[in-house]
Design a protein that fits this description.
single chain, alpha/beta, Spore Coat Polysaccharide Biosynthesis Protein SpsA, Chain A, 8-stranded mixed sheet, 10 helices, 8 strands, about 40% helix
């Protein structure tokens, strides 16, 4: 029924937490596909330990597309490797997805971890804006639930986009199927990128990217120094 797709690259510190949180769910009708971009640590070993199918990945967009091609089920759930799910999340979100007759959906984000960023920052900078824009400008990040037929019709994620390929997918999908934000459960995410570059710098990049998408179109050049440079060679191969 559900195919969970996780792009990875050297994610041994986070992947175990995510896979454990998936295994603890009451809902069990799923497969896990890890699209690995050539990890040098124990990422693939951990994925195998949890019974995941492993496919060749690359950039996040390429990895997600590869995972979708290998998926057997009718609904796809794309999760970043540093996400954690609370108990009963899968059962709740799939029920809401079906009841609302959604074709693509995303989630509100909350911080995870011991030294986590205060919740109000995620709420103010991300959750409130995407809620206010839900009906006019779809967003989707860290977790995306989508009907596989619609995903294939769209041609998947645009692998030429360097930043916000997930938002781009949501906006293309919304033109063909119903989009919504799942309200019955949140997903918990790492704030590692914000901690590394700082909230102001990172959020500024997202804000500039948003403006570019609205006024010009998807970002297909490394304008904001956000490209996964170490994955370009893998993608070309």
């Amino acid at each position: 029924m559900l195919s969970i797709i996780i792009p990875t690259l050297n994610e041994e510190k986070n992947l175990t937490k995510l896979l454990e949180s998936i295994k603890s769910q009451d809902f069990k009708e799923y497969e896990i596909i890890v699209a690995d971009a050539g990890s040098k640590d124990n990422t693939k070993k951990i994925a195998k330990k949890f019974g995941s199918k492993i496919v060749r990945g690359g950039s996040p967009a390429k990895g997600r597309n590869a995972g979708a091609k290998a998926a057997k089920n009718s609904t796809l759930l794309f999760l970043d490797a540093d996400v954690v799910l609370k108990k009963n999340t899968l059962k709740k979100v799939l029920k809401e997805f079906k009841e609302k007759k959604l074709k693509i959906a995303t989630f509100f984000l909350l911080p995870s971890g011991k030294k986590k960023t205060p919740k109000f920052l995620f709420t103010f900078f991300y959750n409130i804006p995407i809620f206010l824009l839900e009906k006019v400008l779809p967003h989707a990040a860290m977790g995306i639930l989508v009907d596989k037929k619609l995903f294939n019709r769209l041609g998947g994620f645009d692998e030429k986009i360097t930043l916000a390929e997930d938002h781009d997918l949501a906006r293309r999908a919304e033109k063909l199927g119903k989009y919504g934000i799942i309200k019955s459960a949140n997903i918990y995410v790492s704030d590692r990128r914000f901690q590394k570059e700082g909230w102001l710098k990172t959020y500024s990049k997202y804000l500039l990217c948003e403006g570019h998408m609205i006024l010009i179109g998807p970002v297909k050049k490394d304008l904001f120094k956000y490209t996964f440079e170490h994955l370009k060679k893998i993608d070309k191969k």
